[in-house]
Amino acid sequence: MIPTRSLSAQSGFFRRSAEELGRLSRIAWNTEALSTPTKPYVMLDFQDKEDVQGCKTMADRVVGGFSTASVDFEPGDPETNTPPHARFHGSISTKLPDNWRVERTGYAAFRNKDRGMWLFGRLYWDVDPYAYLALRVKSDGRRYTVNIQTDSVIETDIHQHRLYTRHHRIYQNAYANTKEGEQPGHVQSLENEDLDGYPAPQGVPDALSEIPPEYTIIGSSSSSATTSGGTGWETVLLPFNSFVRTNHGYVVEPQTSLLRQRIKSIGIGLTDRVEGPFDLRIHKIWATNGMSEAEVEEERQICGADALSVDEGVESHWIERNKKSKGTDNQKSTDAKGLKGLKSEWDE
Q: How many CB atoms lie under 10 A from the CB of residue 18?
């Protein structure tokens, strides 16, 4: 692509081009394209005020509703190990406007703006070599959804996944799942530790279920922000291959895989239709193959007792046990966990 005068005049065109060329050069130099990369690929770093300002909010106010949404930059606090971050906050209202065409309100969301152009066309995120989308957040427990938009044939398609956290709450209508001894129609808030006895809703994809699926990697099993050593911050790993294709909030068929090579935007939405304020803090969003040793120090500093460990990557099943071909005495290297185990295999 030859940068025309109007194109090169776009804010940050040459900076974006230089950054992307530098990133691709590092991948080629380190031969990461030929192996599973161990370094994280940061997509949105809200320690940078420009990344926060590069986001846009959406709410039902565009159709006359009364929900509000804002994304603000919050400076860090070294005394409490609080990093600079983005604060997604506002209020959800299900009140309908005086417009008979509007039948449903009660939603708010944000996403990054168009990333613009660079020397070789439109700028996308290419996360094809990575297994997980990682988000470091401090949640109020509401049912947020992570939204990924790609350069797909149908522009309005979005791939979604619930943002499950240690503080994840559900508001469960007992007509769908009634626990013994409760009256139908009972609606209550449940924390993670209260989910035993409540079966997962039938016909709902795991990624959008009220019950966190087993493959979701969350930190400490504790469910209170006041847990000793906890800071409220936590890192959640969501497998890219578990995101569900939707259109205007509905799951569509046939399902298609997320186009990882051409991601246009990432955002978080709230559509639980529970009236009242919401407040979600986001430190960083990145693609990863599990927590690497280089990330652990920052992870522990910010998340405290709820930090993920290097070995969490084992849940991606990269290290397959091959008992038929190897004896138990020689199996220690293949049983190593996560990125640490992968590296030992590469070095052999």
A: 13
